[in-house]
Amino acid sequence: MPKNEKKKSEGELLKEKLVYKKKTAFEKCPDEKEAVFAYCEDYKKFLDNAKTERDASAYSIALAKKKGFKEYKFGKKVKAGEKYYYNNRGKSVYFFIIGSEDIEKGIALTAAHIDSPRLDLKAHPVYEAGGMAFMKTHYYGGIKKYQWTAIPLALHGTVTLADSKTVDVILGEDESDPLFYVNDILPHLARDQYAKNLGAAIEGEQLNLLSGSMPFDNETPEAIKLNLLRLLNEKYGMTEADFQSAELCAVPAMKARDIGLDRSLIAAYGHDDKVCAYPEITAILSLNKPKKTVMSILADKEETGSDGNTGMKTSAFCDIIADICEALGKSERIVRANSVCLSADVSAAYDPNFAGAYEINNSAIINCGIALCKYTGGGGKSSTNDASGEYVGRIRKIFDDAGVVWQTAELGKVDQGGGGTVAKFISEKNIDTVDVGVPVISMHAPYEVVSKFDVYNMHKAVVAFYTAK
User: Whole domain around residue 276: which residue ranges?
Assistant: First the structure.
């Protein structure tokens, strides 16, 4: 014992042994700052290029192709060591590598979603009023509507023209591009607005994109609307009727930026859930001939219930597994029963400015690593997957052995609200599943915040999960 070190009492030793103390990444991994910051520079590039599920799918596939992944089609023969991606209608992607061991020992699955709250354009959006041209929207996902006023917005998506040609649209991201905008009323005239509760201060039908104010001429009726349509026609070849076969949405035009003098945090649009999707991608792309078959799922439609043929409820998930099993002469039922999954979705970070919404002992603390949520849902654990203690113990050991900084968390106080993930749709297929994700400040806002250290530990966690024995 060092000369000046005080001998610990029996109580202190027992406390160290029995009492759990949450530790930060700075305490557990003090030498990782350089790796953390380097990793997050690439993550910020991903965020700026993957604001919608279409953008994220295309960007991810491009990264995968550079690592030798080949497109998978149903009926394709597969063999150990080969890397594949299945592009589901340009809006969700399945990446997988066939392992060297018998696939009936199970697949290591991870699933994140790549859609985020936004403003979708309606089928007949363009109108003129008060000397301005607007485009009407229908909000997508759970948003606080007042947060989407008076911020810079960009237009993303595709338009299928009358001749079936598809045109991609990204307008507002380049510094030279025009932006779009949702008007709000000035405080001097906001007495009626102030009298409303926060949720009703801005109504859904007020989320209209300010899109122009210059008329085509001084004679034609609705000349401002006509001028807007003329400009769209010149740039994209579309007419007003083509909005009916378009998928266009408004997203925040802000870029991912460091927050704080120490640059330890990142603010961006779409952390939920691209902050888990990107570590999934980097983890599977880092593997070379894994022993276990691994699969990374980037799903669509989570923010609206995971419905549709690109959401996690789609049969495409089981169809791919069944197709692989058929090619290898194996039983799909046995494979699913032995498979395990991390539902990679974000958690709410404890915010002392709104402490009343959280139960501090069971909240995710920023910089304390990824949050493992045994269950989500609301109230009495409604609409959730509740992972077994045995499976949580298995994941806990994997993370500890790999030096992953992690914590457990719930989504706020028991009766404060709640939310769900894709976990329940995967566990319903007889696959052990648990939620693991990065804590987020201001979740679902147009500009969210995460810790760089937590992002990096998400990458470490997925790698450890894929390579665990």
Answer: 18-116+269-467
